[in-house]
């Protein structure tokens, strides 16, 4: 055999070997199969060796990919199970707390009602304080019971006009301020009308109203008198968004992560009336409708809370 054909055969053999290596590595990286067929006799061993090595690379890559996928699935399952267990334990705690507090609070209120304070000014003040705090505790117990039931009880499945819910909630918050002799809050509503109005959602209109009225009430409560509160509606990729922005003191960064927890009260909010359950209720309502609640805040500027609800979905 002449030197020139021999060189060509060896060159072909090396080329096929490299093709085999690249094919195996390429399959491992991209998941596509490549079949290389050669009819030469001398370089067959080299070609087969290259393809075999490529197949080995493919096998190792596929094995690692399967292991990584299995690990990711296992971790996700463990996280979901952990969250479900945590929520179940939390519901049991709320139920026990309601049970343990309900009877003592009822007894305290009955005793206070049966003990007139008389004419002593100090006794009158003490009686008024006792009655007010017992009433506050009773309201807190009722809210805890409502929250625990909301997490487990079935909810209504009906067509809900979110825009109308927003308007009703704002009207009621303003009416409550007027009834209490407070200045009318400066609430501005912005709802889309073109090219289409705010979509409807499926769910419980009373619960959605409760969530929105809590958001608007909180914004008014924490905003200085006369400063604006904005309520905005939008449609974002199939999600109906209700956004409530206030001009309040804002929430420190280290408290933003816990404001949706039950009984959460920030350092700057402890002198403001409230139970710390409003945002927790908003979170649960959003989750029961397949959505979520989020919050952004800047200290000294204000807070924006967003209620996101999938259009036409509830569970």
From TrEMBL:
Entry superkingdom: Bacteria
Transmembrane segments: 40-63
Key words of the record: Cell membrane, Kinase, Membrane, Phosphoprotein, Transferase, Transmembrane, Transmembrane helix, Two-component regulatory system, Virulence
UniProt protein name: histidine kinase
Annotated InterPro entries: 2C_sensor_his_kinase, HATPase_C_sf, HATPase_dom, His_kinase_dom, HisK_dim/P_dom, HisK_dim/P_sf, Sig_transdc_His_kin-like_C
Reaction it catalyzes: ATP + protein L-histidine = ADP + protein N-phospho-L-histidine
Domain Histidine kinase: 96-313
Coiled-coil parts of chain: none
Main location: membrane
Topology with respect to the bilayer: Multi-pass membrane protein
Native species: Cellulomonas phragmiteti
Any matching Pfam family: HATPase_c
Cell compartment(s), UniProt: Cell membrane
EC top class, as a word: transferase
EC number in record: 2.7.13.3
Signal peptide from the UniProt entry: none
């Amino acid at each position: 055999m002449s030197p020139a054909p021999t060189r060509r055969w060896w060159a072909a053999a090396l080329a096929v070997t490299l093709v085999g290596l690249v094919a195996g590595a390429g399959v491992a990286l991209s998941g596509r199969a490549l079949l290389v067929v050669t009819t030469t006799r001398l370089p067959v061993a080299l070609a087969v060796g290259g393809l075999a090595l490529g197949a080995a690379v493919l096998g190792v890559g596929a094995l690692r990919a399967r292991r990584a996928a299995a690990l990711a699935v296992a971790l996700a399952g463990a996280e979901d199970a952990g969250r479900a267990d945590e929520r179940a334990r939390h519901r049991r705690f709320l139920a026990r707390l309601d049970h343990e507090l309900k009877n003592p609070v009822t007894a305290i209120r009955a005793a206070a009602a049966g003990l007139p304070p008389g004419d002593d000014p100090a006794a009158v003040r003490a009686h008024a304080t006792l009655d007010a705090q017992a009433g506050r505790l009773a309201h807190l117990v009722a809210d805890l019971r409502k929250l625990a039931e909301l997490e487990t009880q079935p909810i209504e499945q009906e067509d809900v006009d979110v825009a109308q819910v927003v308007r009703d909630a704002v009207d009621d918050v303003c009416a409550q301020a007027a009834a209490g002799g407070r200045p009318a809050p400066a609430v501005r509503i912005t709802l889309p009308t073109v090219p289409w109005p705010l979509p409807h959602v499926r769910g419980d209109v009373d619960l959605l109203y409760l969530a929105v009225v809590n958001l608007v009430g909180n914004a008014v409560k924490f905003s200085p008198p006369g400063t604006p509160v904005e309520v905005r509606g939008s449609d974002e990729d199939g999600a109906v968004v209700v956004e409530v922005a206030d001009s309040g003191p804002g929430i420190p960064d280290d408290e933003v992560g816990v404001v949706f927890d039950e009984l959460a009260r920030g350092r700057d909010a402890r002198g403001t009336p409230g139970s710390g359950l409003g945002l927790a209720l908003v979170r649960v309502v959003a989750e029961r409708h397949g959505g979520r609640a989020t919050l952004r805040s800047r200290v000294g500027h204000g807070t924006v809370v967003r209620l996101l609800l999938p259009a036409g979905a509830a569970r």
